[in-house]
Amino acid sequence: MQKHIERSRSAERNFEELLASLLEEGEVSVCPDGLLHFGDTVIIHAPVVQPRKGSPVESFPCTLQATPSKAALMKNVYHEVPITAHAHHHRPILKNVFTLLPRTSAHPMGSELIYGAPFNLAHVTPSGQRLYVTSPVGSALHSGRESRRQEVLLCDEESAHSAWRLQPSDPALRLTYEGQPVEVGARVRIIQTMTNQPLVVEEEFSTKTIYGQEQQVSVGVVNRATTRAAHTLCLLTWTRRTPTQEELEQERARKQHEAEDVMEEERERQRRRMEEEEERRREAERELEEKTAGMRLVLDKEESEEEEEERRE
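-> structure tokens emitted (313 positions)
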């Protein structure tokens, strides 16, 4: 029994360490031009998710992520781990970072991602294994129990079920934006190419995971008369715009002004330090003069007493 208890405690410690490792900071790409490219690592954000009717919770944003079960996390087996949406993990962490990978040679790595171009969504586990976001089609085993839409899972091999493309969220702009590059943070719909159905965040259906309650993610037609879902998503990275010459000059002038302020403060500190040192020196001189005057009084008194004694003798 003691050995069993020790093994249980060791397994629990390992689980806590693995649980914390998924929340470590992840890396996302930096896009100076503000456009998405093949090979970029992104986080997928749902700006507005409405809760269940009658719920006291107001609308909230969610971020898509791969949340394994406790058994999958302990065994390091991420095959068929479901994709969920969490309402609190919005910063880049290991469990919510995905990579945009091209499916054809017509779109090499580093080229701009355009509307309508097929791509793979890959997720890299903490152990370095690359898995693909896949939604199996026509399988009763891989459909949501409540929504009856296709589940979204991680698979170790790419297939026709793992092909995705982007559309603008506004239907009136889809023909206009077809073939145009996708901007970072643009509101889009992620469409599965095989079924031509959007990736949606279930607003009314949640699931319990090792991180608490999370929203289900699926693929399928949204019928507002029965269930509701949010299919407007954003692909986010770090954006860094190249500054103009005027902005560079303003920044240079600002830094020069800050340097002058620092030098002025340093000169003021030196002046105050010198004044304090001068004041301490004067105080020391006054104390020395007072001590010298006291010693002179004592000596004069002693001399006068000696002279008085001599006169008496």
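The first strand starts at residue 30 and ends at 31.
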